[in-house]
Each structure stands twice: as C-alpha cells, then as structure tokens.
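S1.2 Input.
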Amino acid sequence: MFTTFMFATGIENSIPTINNGRTRIDEMEKCGHYKYWQTDFDLVKELGLQVLRYGPPLYTTFIGPGRYDWSFADTTFRELEKREIIPIVDLCHFGVPDWIENFQNPDFPELFASYAEAFAARYPWVQLYTPINEMFVCALFSAAYGWWNEQLKSDRAFVTALKHMVKANVLAMERILRIRPDAIFIQSESSEYFHAENPAAIKPAEIMNAKRFLSLDLNYGRRIDSEMYEYVMDNGMTREEYHFFLDRSSLRHHCIMGNDYYLSNEHRVKANGITTAAGDVFGYDEITRQYYDRFRLPVMHTETNLMEGPKGDEAANWLWKQWANVLRVRNNGVPIVGFTWYSLTDQVDWNSALRQEDNCICPVGLYDLDRQIRPVGRGYKQLIEDWCDVLPAQSVCLTLPIVYPYEYNEAPVLRHRERARRLFSNRQDDVQQASR
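S1.3 Output.
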C-alpha cells in the first residue's frame, strides 16, 4: 500500500474551444504528447515520480451517448499500469465534446457521469480521480469572462455552468464509487484571494472572496453564505438543485482538497470591481489555511509553475518558494499529502489563457518540448530525492490508503475495498432517505 507523500507532475490536457466553438485548443496535441507519450512516461520515472495527473482527451474519447473510443486510453493506461505509475485521472479539463456543445447544456451532468462510470469499469485498477478540473476557473472563463466554450458574460451563465459542472463532478464520484468503492477524489481547484485596493473596494472584494468558495461549497455539500445563496438563487439555481448538493455531503469523506496556486491567484480589486494581478502577497500557505479552515479536508498542492525567464533560475526559485510554503502548511498542522509541479513539459498559449491560438511556447515545464530537462526539472528531481523518505517518517501513524496498480487484487486491499463498499452503501441509503 502506497503510504508516502505524493510528489506528482501532470500532462497538460486542456481542451477548451474558442472562436464560438470553431477552434479546439488541444494541449496534448500542441505539446506533442500524442507523438511522445512513451518518452513522457520515461521522463516521469526519470524524475523519481510515482504519481501523474493524467487523462485521455474527453472530446475524442466520449464520442456520443454511450459511445466511446478507448483506443488511445487503452494504450496509455496499459503502459501506466505496466510502469507502476499511479495516475490521478483528469477526466474533464476545461472542455467537452462538440456534440455536448458546452457547459450550459443541462444534460451534461448525467452524460458525464455515464462516461466516468464507463471509464472506471474499463480501468478498475485506477483509484485516484479529478473528475472535473478547476470548476470555478472553467465556469469563470467560459461563462463570466466569455473566453472559452459558450463564451458568455453574465452571472446567470456563470451560475448555470458552475452548477452543471459541480453536479457532474458529484454524480461522477457516486458512479465511480460503485465500481471502485475505495476511490479517492482530488479536487484540483484554484485557490484565490481578492485584496481591496482602497476602502471603496472592500465590498466588491468581499463578494469575490465569497464567490471563490462556491464550487467547493457545493461539491462538499456545505451550506453557502446568505449573500451567495441569494446570488445563486437570483441567477437560476433552484431549491431542488441546491438541496441535491447538500444531500450528498457524505461524499466529502472520499476527497482530498487540491489547491492550485500560481502567481496570478491573488488579485487587487478596484472600487468598480475591476481586478488586476497582485502577485504572491499572502502566498500558498495563508490562502490554503483559509480553505482548510472552511472545509477541514486533507490538502494537496495540485498545480503550480512559473515561466523560466532570462536568468534561467526563475522557475527553480519559485519551486523552492512553493515547497517552503508546503512545509509551512504541514508544520502548522494542516494534513497536506502531496505536491505537484504542473506540467511535465512546456505548455502552449497559456500566456493568453488559451484565448488565442498563437502557438506561443510557455517555458513552464520540467522539460522543454524537445524533452530536454530544464533547471526546475533538475531542482524537482533533487527535491524529491532529498525529501521522499523524510516526510513519511515524521508521520508513521498516518498513511494514505492508496495502492499501486499491481496491488489491486491483493488480500489487504480487497478487505479495505469491501469495508469501503459497505460504508458507501450505507451513505447512499442515507442520501435516498434524505431525498424522499
């Protein structure tokens, strides 16, 4: 059974559409993963990593209701299993297939849940999932800023996208647990903070600081604040929809709260509500503490990176700074179980948040797109070597119930899975009672 701290990276698999749905931005294609996937898996092992955020592209895998093309997933997941790499499976990353259209589609939650269940049935050895990545960010960019997918700009569109994504995420967790009752869900969600620039900006900053929690409030079945309750009700959420989330609060017991943190996650708010980047004023430690105080779940740092600049050490220094924050979070008593540099290779067009197809290479990877290691990659490899045996030894009584693929049918794992199955069944009975 896998008990150590989870050092991870990821293969960038964003797939939003732009230009009113006419252009698909497929980061796996742009970053060369379809061509170099075997090399990429070699690099994961070369770094000494055991955990990889990874998932097949939804738009080419989920080809219609009840119809799937598993060809690429079969090939790559067979290799992950063979190499004993533990995937955190990223099922939906910022986009949906053309036939679903976008996140305004009310059929999306049920359709996606069926896909998640089919995936879990096909790959029952997979235990870790991020069903829908960064729900808050995806709803914001797609339906409030008008950048991706539906390209809408309204509170009602934002609430609609958010409630559909969170419902899809919740239903997917339920369906996956039917197949793999000891599944663990790591919600990779952006951790934000909004700083008032002056006294007149206090009110809009307060509203934004309440709104930042909405996706996780709903996902974990937490009663939302009164101002946010009025906001979602005024913008199309029904009481029935709201209680759907409250009735499934027990799913939080299967969750690790993933907090993503970048230099752009803190914002300066003007009196008129316009925001600009603030840099790392509080930092990952303080903002993660705010999220932990609210949700009281184990934490994982699920995304960070910084572009390598002219000195060549900018990203490596950011890695050190983020790791110092992780240690501070841990030393302050927050159960933090993992860290991720995202992603394995450089990315493309994230300098414009994928709003434009300029094919601009963003040097944020552990490796460049020629698969040559960057200074931050060497730094991460050394960090893993230095700390991989230290952190578990500090908490010998606390272990993660995560298993390697080859342990799937071993007796202790089977016993643990059966206990998890009974627990999940009892909780499902409670949900059915509450909904009557």
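S1.4 Remarks. Residues 6-434 form a domain with the TIM Barrel fold (CATH 3.20.20.80).
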